[in-house]
């Protein structure tokens, strides 16, 4: 590290320590003027972000790390940038607005530095140092923002899948999953997980999977159904598939898929009748065993 850079780093740290509140307020002002208050943000939150980021930046500069490694190795500064980005992602802010907001701190900081450093070479060195740190912070902010939004999208997609595959308790120890629409790998996994959890929760002995609303059945869909049936059986319950339409039955036969060892019924009503018979037999068997 050069002597000049070390001296400039120390001077920047002093400026942040002495004029931190002023710099933070100026940063908030720049954000409001250029981006406005939107995306669920309020000015008090901007002030909290500004105070935290200015404080963390001052601490990072005082740590003596090389500029190119500060955002990577200084946990305090990195955590503040990541937290700011994630909170704004959840609020619905645009990623470019968030990353540019972090970079706008550069202007607020350099305005204060310019008043403190009269010598041109020191000012240039300070500008370069600040740019390297805050540009890296802006890049981290953008990266974190995108990852945060992707996580939100994945979670929302999962929630939509769960809403589209409800497990219904039809009778004591009898559950049903009415499926509507296409059945892919992700949705099949949600069906299996929700059904197995419901079987355990309700101590169910029969599970009905109704595919009346499933438009087509191919090899993949059939395999998913068979895996679900096997998993249900491993839980100690019987499984009935209902709603197999004539066209789907022909497709299954043409694909050479063997469903001979799986209970199937034409309608949900027929499946429920079968389920009642199965639970009745199980009850009789338990009574006979106790007798």
UniProtKB/TrEMBL annotation:
PROSITE patterns: STAS (PS50801). The keyword Phosphoprotein applies. The keyword Metal-binding does not apply. SUPFAM superfamilies: SpoIIaa-like. Keywords: Phosphoprotein. Residues 164-275 form the STAS domain. CDD domains: STAS_RsbR_RsbS_like. This is STAS domain-containing protein.
């Amino acid at each position: 590290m050069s002597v000049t850079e070390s001296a400039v780093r120390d001077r920047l740290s002093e400026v942040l320590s002495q004029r931190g509140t002023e710099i933070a307020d100026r940063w908030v002002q720049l954000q409001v003027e250029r981006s406005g208050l939107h995306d669920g943000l309020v000015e008090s939150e901007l002030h909290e972000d500004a105070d935290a980021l200015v404080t963390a930046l001052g601490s990072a500069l005082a740590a003596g790390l090389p500029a190119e490694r500060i955002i990577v190795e200084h946990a305090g500064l990195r955590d503040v940038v990541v937290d700011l980005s994630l909170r704004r992602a959840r609020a619905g802010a645009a990623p470019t607005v968030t990353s540019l907001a972090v970079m706008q701190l550069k202007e607020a900081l350099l305005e204060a530095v310019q008043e403190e450093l009269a010598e041109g070479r020191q000012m240039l060195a300070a500008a370069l140092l600040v740019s390297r740190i805050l540009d890296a912070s802006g890049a981290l902010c953008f990266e974190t923002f995108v990852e945060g939004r992707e996580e939100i999208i994945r979670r929302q997609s999962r929630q939509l899948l769960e809403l589209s595959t409800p497990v219904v308790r039809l009778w004591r120890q009898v559950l049903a999953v009415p499926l509507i629409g296409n059945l892919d790998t992700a949705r099949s996994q949600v069906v299996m997980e929700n059904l197995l959890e419901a079987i355990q929760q309700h101590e169910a002995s029969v599970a009905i999977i109704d595919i009346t609303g499933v438009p087509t059945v191919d090899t993949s869909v059939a395999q998913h159904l068979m895996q679900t049936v096997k998993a249900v059986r491993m839980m100690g319950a019987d499984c009935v598939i209902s709603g197999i339409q004539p066209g789907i039955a022909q497709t299954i036969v043409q694909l050479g898929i063997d469903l001979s060892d799986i209970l199937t019924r034409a309608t949900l009503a027929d499946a429920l009748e079968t389920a009642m018979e199965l639970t009745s037999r199980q009850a009789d068997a338990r009574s006979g065993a106790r007798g």
